[in-house]
Amino acid sequence: MLVLFSHTTNQPGGVGPTTTSYIWANNRQVQTALHVRKGTKMEWSRCNWSLSYTYDITTTVPYHKYLTNKDYKVLIYSTNTWIKSLNLSLKRDWLPWYVGGQVGGYALEYAHEQNYSLVFATVKGGGHTAPEYRPEECLAMISKWLAGFTI
């Protein structure tokens, strides 16, 4: 098991989030756990702009709207601008959630027919890549949600 504790740039050696994700993604144990075939990718880089593909999906909202009629539990974090277009009912308004006695972020919950529920959560100080900048908080958030606890 590979455990990286350094996730801020003020750590000795100047290891920051970008460096940590680079080290993690290029670690052979991690690649084996993710079933990356040896030799497939010689070195992982953060952004690969050389891929050639056609960008043809302008929105995923119709997919989400379709799924609201299923018996699903959904967790969304980071952005919520499109959630209102799903026409869900507010089940629980904004409340803080905690990690180690500190506010880890805030969450609210929406509901729809049957047993569909959508939890929208924020991660305090999470930035663009919350799991990279706030790994403890993100692990707590997803662990609580997967265990069926209120975030």
TrEMBL record:
Keywords: Carboxypeptidase, Glycoprotein, Hydrolase, Protease. Pfam families: Peptidase_S10. InterPro entries: AB_hydrolase_fold (IPR029058), Peptidase_S10 (IPR001563), Ser_caboxypep_his_AS (IPR033124). Signal peptide: none annotated. SUPFAM superfamilies: alpha/beta-Hydrolases. Belongs to the peptidase S10 family. This is Uncharacterized protein. It comes from Stylosanthes scabra. The lineage of its organism: Eukaryota, Viridiplantae, Streptophyta, Embryophyta, Tracheophyta.
